């Protein structure tokens, strides 16, 4: 289950990376939308990972290392999500949490 969630997140973030490479304003909106979806998808993955004792670094390695120029954005997002969830501030819908992070 954990591996399946990570694969889904990688695919969502990969789509975001491809969209990010486009130069038009439309692709910028699509990138923002893709990052929002990726953020929402990352929340259950990070929750599961934390239950199994996975570290931020292990999630970054599995998910973010495949994203090329979006690696830093992904890494920052994963760290912020881990922080929110550890503080108990990660309650509410995925969209609400990601909106608090300024991604959605």
UniProtKB/TrEMBL annotation:
<keyword id="KW-0732">Signal</keyword>
<dbReference type="InterPro" id="IPR008139">
    <property type="entry name" value="SaposinB_dom"/>
</dbReference>
<protein>
    <recommendedName>
        <fullName>Saposin B-type domain-containing protein</fullName>
    </recommendedName>
</protein>
<feature type="signal peptide">
    <location>
        <begin position="1"/>
        <end position="17"/>
    </location>
</feature>
<keyword id="KW-1015">Disulfide bond</keyword>
<dbReference type="InterPro" id="IPR011001">
    <property type="entry name" value="Saposin-like"/>
</dbReference>
<feature type="domain" description="Saposin B-type">
    <location>
        <begin position="32"/>
        <end position="104"/>
    </location>
</feature>
